[in-house]
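Quick one:
INPUT:
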């Protein structure tokens, strides 16, 4: 989580799990309690799994998640694991660039309202 938090912040976002990414919790990369996603009310959700496709319809179908701003406002995105999770330059060049575009799109959409 530490590197993910750094990339989110480098892209202009604010990681709602920044505290969890420090210290011992850094070893935990999967959030298992749905309330831990609902509680911080993220504006954007980015999914990335090795070998699996991010399915926004499954995120939308989770009980209580319709109240999450990212779900309500359809700000659900996928970055392929090769672009963000794999070690090497593509995690910075491709993954960071995609995060920057996602954050910029959200900012522009928010400013229009």
């Amino acid at each position: 989580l530490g590197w993910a938090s750094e990339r989110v912040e480098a892209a202009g976002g604010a990681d709602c799990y920044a505290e969890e990414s420090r210290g011992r919790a850094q070893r935990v990369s999967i959030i298992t309690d749905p309330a831990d996603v609902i509680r911080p009310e993220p504006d954007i959700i980015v999914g990335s799994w090795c070998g699996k496709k991010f399915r926004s319809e499954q995120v939308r179908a989770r009980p209580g998640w319709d109240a999450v701003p990212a779900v309500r406002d359809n700000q659900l995105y996928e970055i392929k694991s090769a672009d963000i999770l794999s070690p090497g330059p593509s995690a910075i060049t491709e993954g960071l660039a995609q995060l920057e575009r996602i954050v910029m799109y959200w900012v522009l959409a928010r400013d229009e309202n």
